Structure formats: structure tokens, C-alpha cells
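Sequence only, no structure available. Ideas?
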Amino acid sequence: MVCTEVSERVLHTHMAEMYRNIAYELESALRQMRLKGMMRLPTEDELCRRYSCSRQTVRAALDLLVQKGLIVKKRGSGSYISDKITASVCNVILIVEDEYEYIYPDLISSLRSSLKKKGYDLRCISTKGSYEKERDALKEVLASSPAAVIIEPISDILPNPNMPLMDKIRIKEIPVIYLYASYPSPDGSICIREDNASGSDMLVSYLKENGHPVISSIFRCDDSRGLERYRGFVDALHKYGLPFDQDRSFFYTGSDRKKLLSGNDDFLRRTVEGMAPDVSAVITQNDEIAFRLLKVLQKSGRSGISVASFDNSYFASGPASISSLGHSSRDLITAASDAVTAAVDHRSFTPPPVRWHLHARNG
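Reply:
I predicted one. C-alpha cells follow.
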């Protein structure tokens, strides 16, 4: 009797795993079917032959797709892609701080072009660094059920009040791809990360070679990217035999950046005031901070200090001429595009860290 019960449980578990796998494969095929103008799914008999399984298993897989709103069953006619999914199955939503500012326009343009070749349309939503706006964006994701969502966290260090919405997105099985950093995720969502520690190493090495024995730093402390860059900075100082003093390291938050954008540069002025006289170079979180720091240094009579940073944006390549690390746009876009495809197909995918390349403009 016990053996029979165990066998039935094993059989039930195997069937559940099989119909879920079939449902995943069919869900991945919906996008290609729609692109080819095919709305009707294969018959149950055809699916039984394709997957070498029983009609009961096929029906369970189709029922799962019905529950998710992906298909509708019509009595005597078969199963069809639902009207609801017709539009959303080819949409990808990108959630970033501001789609029109800083590094985002070029990134979005290239990503949109890459995804278009794979049959996806890209829609962008800006959060302005606001949890309230992020909440609205996540609600939009839940309402529209896109093929995937790419999200850049506001802060992956501080507790996020929107995690219940992220949980709902996971339960709804909408693939999530994180950009640069990730919120806590029990399902191991895909994250496209940068090789931040090696980036800091490159900048320290470059500044040392250009005659800077005492280097300061300014990094964001409520963001794992900033902490990774700081950790790489400290390790590089030890590696190249340069002095480390914690009083030469300065930190800021997302709130400080908002104030800076509104014209309040208090935290940068305090940073320069606290900077030791022997400092001759500074490594900053990104080009935006570097650009604004140079202005404060000039006002303070310390324009001789060199500044290096991350992102290789227009802030660095313009008149300020800042040495900066940049990505190969192809590496980043390829990683994001491949991540979308893998997520939609329910395949595990771990993109390699996006590497930095130095664009030297000053010493």
C-alpha cells in the first residue's frame, strides 16, 4: 500500500514537471508564431506526438497558459493566442532613472535596435530615482504582462518598499532582468553587471603612472556599484604601494545627487574642504560627479587636481576632458539582448561581467 502511494506521488510529480516544461516551451513559441501571423496552436494530438506524452499532460500545459492569459480555448476549434497577449508578447519594458539623461539615450537607442532584430519592441519608463514612480512602473508591468522587464534598481542596498510588487511579478512569471545591480531575488534573476573592481584598478594604475602618489575617491554608498568600485580602489592602492587613508575617501547618496541636480553642490564643497593638501588626483563614481567636482575645485583654487571616473559620457569627452572608463557598447547591448531571449525562453543565463576600457584624456 505504501509503495503504491509513493509510486503515485512520483508519477504525479513527474507529470507536473512535464506539463510545466511543455507550457514553458509553448510560451516561448508564441512570440515567433505571432511574428509569422500564426494565431492557432497545434492540436492536442499534434502536441502529444511532438512531446511524446499523454493528452492529459498536454491539456494541463494548455490550461496553465490559459490561466496566465496567454491563450484562449475555443470549443470545437482549438487553442489560440489571446488578444491580450498579441501586443504584449513582443514588448520589453525598461525601467531606468531617466531615459533622457546622461548615459541612457545612447544605451536605449542601441538596445531598442538590437531587440527589434529579435522581434521585440522596447518601451521605457523613468523613475526619477523615486520609489513612488518605480511603484507605478511596476504596476504597469503587472497590468501589461510584457515578454520581459529590464530594471535598474534605485538602490540595492537600502530596503525597498516595492518588493511586494516585485514578488507579484515573479509569481506572474514575467521574466526580470536587472541592470548593473539587483534587488533581492529568490529565483536568481539574470543580472547584467560591470567589472567594477577591475575598473578601479585600471584608474589607480593610470593615475600612478601619471605621477599621482596620493589619490582620493568619491563613491556612492547606497548602491552596490559604488561599494564595488570603492573596494577595488582600496585593493588597488595596496596593490600598487600607494598610501590609503580613510579620510581621503568620501561618499554620497542618491539624495545627495538629487540635490546636486537642483543646483545644491554642498556635498561636493564639503568634500573639497575636507580633502588633504597632498591629494593630487580623485577617482569619482561617474563622469557627472567628476564634471561637477572639477567646477568646485576651480572655485576653491585647487584646479591642479586631476579627476578620473567611470562611464565615458559626454561629460568626460567634452571641454572638461576627463579620463574615464567606458564600456564596449556592443558588449553591454549583446548581454542585455541575449538576457531577454534567455529569460523569455526560461533558460538559465549568466552574462559575463561587462568590462571597462580606459579613455585617457589627461594625467
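The mean pLDDT is 89.
Hope that gets you unstuck.
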